[in-house]
């Protein structure tokens, strides 16, 4: 094919994509004043926010709902409704289904792939007013809660009952359990408690026609045919709106410690992980990795207390390891033995280690790790890739991406400022972050499909935990076969034949 005809072919593909998008938006009706009047029949005025009459709010009042956490994706919704229970959600959805209005379900709006904000002017259904614990059984540890409960508030609720949530993440102060379920959030405790596909026991979901699917089971075991709830875990609001969650919580550990280990080179991370698993076995509860450059950003932007100069000198990367268990003396003895082995070895895997000595130090050390996301976004505009690749390749992925951007002449203060890596070693999940001065088409074109092809070359996943959202619909095929995507489309069609539920997300 000649250069000219190749360019024509590419242009044709581009305009096809554009017109597909245009026809998608033409399929839906916008919310109008009649819809607002209809919603007002069963929703209090305080739970409807709209730039349409009679409220005529300035659009800035809707910005917290239209703009995503990174300020990368921007919707143009005119209206946000904040129902208080599943019946109200159902009534809103019924109206949208009848009128062909597209819907975006929204939790705490902390998602990192643009899934929780509209693409155009879809109706936003925000779950924040559904924030009550429905029941808790201290014997089984099973908690049933409204989907809009904030993760941290659920942890606070459980504390006096000596239980903890089976997941924890840096966004805990804002993200909601319904959002966590809908993104199948991983986070910092997955190594110990596994994924939400295991700990979620039941869901209540409003389907795209308004039907309430009550699968809010509190049974640990239930083998009665297809396990429908699994479809909604990680569906990112494309199949229905989660309104209630039944989840197995864990007994609170009686003792917990953490230690930050400074490593001279990345290659030591894996042998360290193997050794930690061997010596700590059941008390190892987190094993998180972050490179030196992102550690420096965390400290620069005030996340946690800096380690001493001595402790960071010569460190290429760090590991934050947490132990938790049932008996302080036993756990401390095991951890101390591990540290002794590490320090006394002929070929030490670590330079130094800082062991927390108080609850305040424990929290401050976690604050460094949990604050990486915030630090990166304070430093600039982050292109975030949350990928699964073999553990041994974490550094190679970061270095190859940095070299690639360098070869394009983009490693400059006014373009790409940092290429950093951190992640959940125990889960094989690397967070590759490219921190730029601004989001630009040039940087995006240099990164994509480059990063996705790199991930595919390792047979990895383009999304280990944040999901597909709007960011990666075009990249789904790097990690899913055509047959899988075809069956995902069939499932979507079955649940949502009108395609009103979070259009333009997940599926290409
Ligand atoms: P939103 O952002 O509001 O929505 C996310 C998606 O779920 C959207 O597609 C939305 O339509 C859908 N959705 C939300 N609520 C519902 C519902 N009730 N029913 C149906 N669909 C719904 N993720 C991890 O996996 N691990 C981490 O360690 C982690 N750390 C983070 C740290 C920070 C600082 C930030 C900002 C984000 C982090 N995330 C992490 C991203 C993560 O996906 C979210 O924080 C969280 O799970 C999303 O919950 P949310 O309530 O904010 O959902
Ligand atoms: C994390 O592990 O910190 C989160 O997934 C958020 C991020 O990737 O920045
Ligand atoms: Zn993560």
From TrEMBL:
Its cofactor is FAD. PROSITE patterns: FAD_PCMH (PS51387). InterPro entries: FAD-bd_oxidored_4_C (IPR004113), FAD-bd_PCMH (IPR016166), FAD-bd_PCMH-like_sf (IPR036318), FAD-bd_PCMH_sub1 (IPR016167), FAD-bd_PCMH_sub2 (IPR016169), FAD-linked_Oxase-like_C (IPR016164), FAD-oxidored/transferase_4 (IPR051264), Oxid_FAD_bind_N (IPR006094). It comes from the Eukaryota. Residues 73-252 form the FAD-binding PCMH-type domain. Keywords: FAD, Flavoprotein, Oxidoreductase. Belongs to the FAD-binding oxidoreductase/transferase type 4 family. This is FAD-binding PCMH-type domain-containing protein. It comes from Somion occarium.
């Amino acid at each position: 094919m000649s250069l000219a005809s190749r360019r024509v072919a590419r242009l044709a593909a581009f305009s096809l994509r554009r017109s597909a998008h245009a026809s998608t938006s033409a399929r839906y009706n916008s919310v109008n004043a009649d819809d607002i009047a209809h919603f007002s029949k069963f929703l209090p005025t305080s739970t409807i926010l709209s730039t349409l009459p009679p409220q005529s709010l300035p659009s800035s009042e809707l910005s917290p709902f239209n703009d995503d956490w990174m300020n990368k994706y921007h919707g143009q919704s005119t209206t946000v409704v904040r129902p208080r229970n599943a019946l109200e959600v159902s009534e809103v959805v019924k109206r949208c289904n009848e009128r062909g209005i597209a819907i975006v379900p929204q939790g705490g709006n902390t998602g990192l792939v643009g899934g929780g904000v509209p693409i155009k002017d879809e109706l936003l259904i925000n779950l924040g007013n559904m924030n009550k614990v429905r029941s808790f059984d201290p014997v089984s540890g099973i908690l049933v809660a409204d989907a809009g409960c904030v993760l941290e508030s659920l942890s606070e609720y459980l504390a006096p009952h000596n239980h903890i949530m089976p997941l924890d993440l840096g966004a805990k102060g804002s993200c909601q359990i319904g959002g966590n379920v809908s993104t199948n959030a991983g986070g910092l405790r997955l190594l110990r408690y596994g994924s939400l596909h295991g700990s979620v026991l039941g869901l209540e979901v409003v389907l795209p026609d308004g039907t309430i699917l009550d699968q809010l089971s509190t049974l640990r075991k239930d083998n009665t045919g297809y396990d429908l709830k699994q479809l909604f875990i990680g569906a990112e609001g494309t199949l229905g709106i989660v309104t209630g969650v039944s989840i197995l919580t864990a007994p609170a550990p009686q003792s917990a410690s953490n230690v930050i280990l400074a490593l001279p080179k990345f290659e030591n991370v894996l042998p360290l992980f193997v050794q930690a698993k061997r010596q700590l076995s059941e008390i190892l509860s987190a094993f998180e990795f972050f490179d030196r450059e992102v550690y420096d950003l965390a400290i620069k932007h005030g996340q946690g207390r800096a380690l001493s100069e001595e402790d960071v000198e010569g460190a290429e990367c760090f590991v934050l390891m947490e132990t938790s268990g049932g008996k302080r003396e036993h756990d401390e003895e095991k951890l101390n033995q591990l540290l002794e082995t590490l320090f006394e070895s002929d070929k030490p895997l670590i330079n130094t280690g800082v062991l927390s000595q108080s609850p305040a130090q424990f929290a401050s050390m976690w604050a460094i790790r949990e604050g990486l996301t915030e630090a990166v976004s304070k430093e600039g505009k982050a292109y975030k890739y949350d990928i699964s690749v073999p553990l041994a390749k974490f550094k190679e992925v970061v270095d190859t991406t940095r070299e690639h951007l360098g070869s394009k002449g983009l490693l400059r203060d006014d373009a790409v400022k940092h290429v950093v890596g951190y992640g959940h070693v125990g889960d094989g999940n690397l967070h590759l972050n490219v921190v730029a001065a601004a989001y630009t088409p040039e940087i995006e074109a240099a990164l994509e499909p480059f990063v996705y092809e790199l991930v595919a070359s390792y047979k990895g996943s383009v999304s280990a935990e944040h999901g597909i959202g709007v960011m990666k619909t075009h990249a789904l095929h790097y990690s899913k076969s055509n047959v899988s995507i075809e069956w995902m489309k069939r499932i979507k069609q079955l649940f949502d034949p009108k395609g009103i539920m979070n259009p333009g997300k997940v599926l290409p």
